[in-house]
């Protein structure tokens, strides 16, 4: 029997792009928080992706993955060294302008990433978790994003399970 009707259970744009962000985060070596990001053009083309990790040349095996407060030694914690997924996605883009684009990210952007998001011309953020809501970094981030007119809203999970065998 030939099938002539269009498939109806295809994934939505939001599921697709948030799914790509989640998949990208799976490359992260961070033992506690893995974050992924995907930047999309106004006509739904993926422009860039990123996840949190150390910059090129800074070995994942030599630089520390711990948290500052565990050792009370900031040089031996990840925070000075890890590049956030959103910044990596912005920096990974070599194609020109990100003006008017949309960012899908699994965790709400911090104040430092908010600056890069605003300056690169990203106009919309779709985020997953907001687990650091209320912290100074997120408060400052929201203040800047609001002032700059960057729209943000939380992704609403659909509950669809997507299994991929690799
Ligand atoms: N929006 C974000 N994007 C990110 O890529 N990160 C990264 C930086 C660290 O590698 C990790 C946070 O570590 P932790 O404090 O939850 O153990 O996630 C963190 C945030 C939060 O602002
Ligand atoms: Zn950040």
Automatic annotation (TrEMBL):
InterPro entries: CMP_dCMP_dom, Cytidine_deaminase-like, dCMP_deaminase, dCMP_deaminase-rel, Deoxycytidylate_deaminase_dom. PROSITE patterns: CYT_DCMP_DEAMINASES_2. Residues 12-152 form the CMP/dCMP-type deaminase domain. GO terms for molecular function: dCMP deaminase activity; zinc ion binding. Its cofactor is Zn(2+). Zn(2+) binds at residues 84, 110, 113. It comes from the Bacteria. Gene3D superfamilies: Cytidine Deaminase, domain 2 (3.40.140.10). The active site is at 86 (proton donor). CDD domains: deoxycytidylate_deaminase (cd01286). It is an enzyme of class 3 (hydrolase). Belongs to the cytidine and deoxycytidylate deaminase family. This is dCMP deaminase. It comes from Hungatella hathewayi. The gene is tadA_1.
């Amino acid at each position: 029997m030939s099938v002539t009707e269009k498939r109806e259970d295809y994934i939505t744009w939001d599921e697709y792009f948030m799914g790509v962000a989640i998949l990208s985060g799976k490359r992260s070596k961070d033992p506690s928080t893995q974050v992924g990001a995907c930047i999309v053009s106004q006509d739904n083309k993926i422009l860039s992706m990123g996840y949190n990790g150390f910059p090129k040349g800074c070995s994942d095996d030599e630089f520390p993955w711990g948290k500052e407060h565990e050792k009370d030694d900031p040089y031996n914690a990840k925070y000075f060294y890890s590049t956030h997924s959103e910044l990596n996605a912005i920096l990974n883009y070599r194609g020109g302008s990100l003006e008017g684009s949309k960012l899908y990210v699994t965790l709400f952007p911090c104040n430092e990433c908010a600056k890069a998001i605003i300056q690169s011309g990203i106009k919309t953020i779709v985020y997953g978790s907001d687990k650091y809501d209320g912290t100074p970094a997120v408060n400052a981030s929201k203040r800047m994003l609001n002032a700059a007119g960057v729209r943000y809203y939380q992704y609403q999970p659909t509950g669809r399970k997507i299994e991929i065998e690799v």
